[in-house]
Design brief:
The protein is an alpha/beta fold. Helices cover about 35% and strands about 20% of the residues. Helix 1 runs parallel beside helix 4 (about 70-85). The chain binds S-adenosyl-L-homocysteine.
């Protein structure tokens, strides 16, 4: 069973190879030259099934999008969606965000999007949260001066923890809300799969924006 599943996945991933970057390490420092070509580079970390990345790319042809996802079975769904929609300014990478330095040079990225990142609720797993200070310090390095981090989550404890971590990392915040869908920023807000699920269950969506000052 397991073998058949893997074989099928490989076939599907192969069908998306035009937009899945195989050896992203070889592109370090070259994302603008080889892909973005003067456009803003926007990175989504943990893109899941890809609705946010695909919709963002379609709405903003002036930007170039890179969507990172560590689970190949999920990444393939996102990539298939992008191919079906014919996006030309979006690529995918199957990669762990803990190793971002291996694929991005300092000051290479304009915007980072963290949507509904895994909360890792146990205190002993705090370091795995994608808004833990060690991750924020990596984002700071790969983002340009004036670059932005957009974070949204239904999880209030994770959000409150993240507010502290941004503070510790000296990243100034703006556009902070505990109820994004009833805020002025809802206009233009692109919903993710998790966002619609949690909001349908009655959870409020928290959102913040951090701006990098170098
Ligand atoms: N952004 C999507 C999915 C949220 S679930 C949405 O809002 O609908 C969080 C996603 O992040 C999962 O798909 C998970 O596999 C991915 N993820 C978690 N840790 C990651 C890491 N270290 N690097 C890349 N992706 C990661």
């Amino acid at each position: 069973m397991r073998m058949r599943k893997k074989k099928n996945l490989d076939k599907r991933l192969d069908a998306c190879k035009s937009i899945i970057i195989e050896n992203p390490e070889t592109q370090k420092g070259l994302w603008d030259k080889n892909f973005a070509k003067g456009r803003k580079i926007c990175l989504e970390i943990g893109c899941g099934k890809g609705t946010f990345a695909v919709t963002s790319a379609q709405r903003n042809p002036e930007n170039f999008y890179i969507a990172l996802e560590v689970v190949p079975d999920v990444l393939v769904l996102a990539a298939e969606k992008a191919i079906a929609q014919n996006t030309e300014n979006l690529v995918f990478i199957c990669f762990d965000a803990a190793k971002l330095f291996e694929i991005f040079e300092k000051n290479e990225i304009d915007e980072i999007y963290l949507n509904f990142s895994d909360p890792w609720p146990k205190a002993r797993h705090a370091k795995r949260r994608l808004t833990y200070i060690s991750f924020l310090n990596i984002y700071k390095e790969i983002l340009k001066n004036g670059g932005k981090i957009f974070f949204k989550t239904d999880n209030r404890p994770l959000f409150d923890f993240s507010l502290e971590q941004f503070g510790e990392a000296n990243i100034p915040l703006s556009d902070v809300t505990n109820d994004l869908h009833n805020s002025p920023w809802e206009e233009g807000n692109i919903h993710t799969e998790y966002e619609d699920n949690f909001s349908a269950k009655g959870f409020c969506i928290n959102r913040l924006v951090g701006t990098i000052e170098k």
